[in-house]
Fold this sequence. Notes:
Elements: H1 26-30, H2 36-73, E1 83-86, E2 91-92, E3 95-96, H3 98-112, E4 119-122, H4 133-143, E5 151-154, H5 160-170, E6 178-183, H6 188-197, E7 201-206, H7 217-238
Parallel strand pairs: 1-4, 1-6, 4-5, 6-7
Antiparallel strand pairs: 2-3
Helix pairs in contact: 2-7
Amino acid sequence: MTNTSDTQPLPAIHPNHAPRSQPLQHSDFTTTAVSPNRKQRTALKWVTSLVTACLVIMVAGVFGIITLVYVQARTDEARQVDAIVVMGAAQFNGRPSPVLQARLDQALALYNSGLAPRIVVTGGQQPGDAFTEAETGYRYLMEQGVPADAILMENEGRSTWKSMQGLPAVLPPSESPEVLVVSDGFHLFRSELMLGELGYDAHSSAAPDSPIRLWSLTEFGYVVREVGGVFVFLPEMLW
């Protein structure tokens, strides 16, 4: 006997009700693809973060160097050394300016205290000058009773770094490795960096009677300039 359920016809499908593939909706794309605007926003966010980080590092570096310059300016490292190095400053036809005289007087006091057997005066000739800064320092120290054979001259450099580079010719670091640099306080941090780069064991002592007074606006202006000088010198240390 045949089961009637097996022979029942399948229901008819009306043409209007036939299944068909549905078109993709706009929402289907947005869930699987990143829009160009979103990519641009992400890139801009990364660039902004990078620039901000660089600015923060630069500002921190500037304030860090300012702090180091101020601290070094107020730290007297006077001790027994092989030589005292006096950084040059302006001179007027063989007569030291007040700034240079203050540096020379401090070097003289250290020398008379027996802290070093020699003094090195530095500084070349500026345009229009008849004397170099080193020659002026040499003459001044001679007048104060320092023997000629106790004074060495580096009289070519017209900048701090140039004077430092000329120093080994008159004071080889292999023979006189430990030095005490004398200058205005704001100048000592960078001077020690340069001497260390040339192979010296450098210490420093500020000229206390300089007309560039501590905590003055004039000193602050020089400190800011020193920050720039340190940044300019950094490539010399790195390469």
